[in-house]
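hey m, so remember when u said the tokens were messed up on ur end? i reran from scratch. heres the input so u can diff it against urs
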Amino acid sequence: MEVINYYGENYSGNYEKERVTVRAVIVQDGMILVSYNELKDQYILPGGEKKEHETDLDYIDHEIGTDLTIESGDALVEINEYYRDTKWVARYYLAGSSTKEDLKGEWIKVEELIDILRKYDNYQESDPMKRGMYMRDYMALTSLYSRVK
């Protein structure tokens, strides 16, 4: 698993809290599954924050879909971000599905999503949360690109 560490300017040097998100990168025929939030004009990879008692795979199973096939039992990319007193962990799993139609979301070209995400710094002032999500997803997808194209 590739681990990417990112330290925010406001990181205190120690973290007291840890929050973990899990994302499934689902690609078929050069297309990637995303959710699109029209109000925020934002693309989101399937997944979210898991509860402490859940395993990553349990979370993927009940939140995203039971018919997904995970490429390996381990995340392929983990991004650790450190801000103030919190460590934010984002784990990315490469997944597949035998039926594209059963999955909820929108399918767009992988390259198109990478082009959208690469502009994450455009949101530094206007929407720091969107910037952070796009930055994480961009780092993960560019790391996984050779496997998903």
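this time it looks ok to me. Helices lie at 56-63, 110-117, 128-148. if urs says something different then somethings off w ur setup not the seq
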